[in-house]
Amino acid sequence: MGARLPWRRLSRIVPPIVVGAVLATMAGLGAGALVHPHDLAGSARYSLLAGFLLAIGLYGSTHAIELGALRRDVRGVLVAVTLGVVLKATLIAGVMLLAFHEARYLVLGIAVAQIDPLSVAAMRAGSRMSERAKALLFAWASFDDPVTVLLALYFSILAFRLSGRDGSPRAGPSGSGLGAYLVDLGWNLALAAGALLVFLALRALRRRVGSDVEGGGRGVDLLSLVALAAVFLVAADSMLMLAVAVTGLFFRVGAYAGFIDRAVSVAFLVASFALGLLLVDGVDPLPALVLGCAAFGAQALISLLVVPVLKHGLSRRDRVHLALGQQNGITAIILALALEPDFRGTVGIVAPAILVVNVLHYASNGLLNRFADRLPDPGEETLVGPWPDVEKAADDAVAIADRD
Predict the structure, then answer these.
(1) pLDDT tens digits, 105-116
(2) Is 68 exposed, middle or buried, given 0-12, 13-18 or 19+ CB atoms closer than 10 A?
(3) Domains in the chain and their CATH numbers?
(4) Is the confidence at residue 36, as pLDDT, over 50?
(5) Which of 123, 192, 274, 387 lies most in the core, judged by the most C-beta atoms within 10 Å?
């Protein structure tokens, strides 16, 4: 029993999925040192795998968003994805561009701008934040993930051009100019529309056979899961991630909803292993340190602007927890893998930057929890202001997470 206590104590501080990701990265690093994969990031299979993992993670973020919450608080969502994502990404990228004067840092800064919803969901039980603050952080993490992915992919072509190279990045739209973006948008909308038609057809089939055929509803749910995997493959082949983000808002797999959450966790571990394979080529510690500190600092700064707008009446302790809420995980890792073929050395910067961010997160929150009881805290105040629906939207996010 005594041998199990350190693990229990660690699991209360660091979520098990994060520990698993660290172990998977170390395993990948060991495997890479043994086999020395030659130009792994340059292969077509690598790009397809990175795209497929990104599609799984992106769907995992958007399928937890409830449309009712979006409709009830459109203004609050817009604040979250502008101040909470775009401005934060701009701050991080600006720091990196000023520090190192390389165009690739435009997208590297965006890649770590999001808060990892998987890590947030995993830490909810052991956190000393109030339920309202947990709900806000989880809702924020769910909304900023897809926006960050799309920003990174679409701005990759700008960084590619500013680097003085011809052609197009694999992770972004093919071609150049407004026409390339419009064509890419058209293909994304076409794939999302196709996914919607398939979903509606399967839903009608479920209603027809659900009560007439034993196990018929579960069979249709399995067909839905297969159809969703096909959407992921098509999206991964052409990096149509906007279509995946939109599909996640409506496409449900019924009895296999829990499988999606497990698939996201597996994708996290696979991506971490692949990250370790590429880390054999080395890391770039100084840019990584600056990137990690910039991401963590930007969250603290932006939370001062976003939190008062999204939810009034939080206690002082909750506000500090939200300011220290930056965590990176599956999305940042997979974005690094996806960007590596176009911007070599991305993994060697983003991977240690993720470590820096998470170390800062757990260390600062650990210190806060240790000394919080010694600090005066007036407690939660009454919710006031023009944003009352955000309370319901955040609570809906928690209900979705608990149900899954």
Answers:
(1) 989 999 999 888
(2) exposed
(3) 40-375 (1.20.1530)
(4) yes
(5) 274
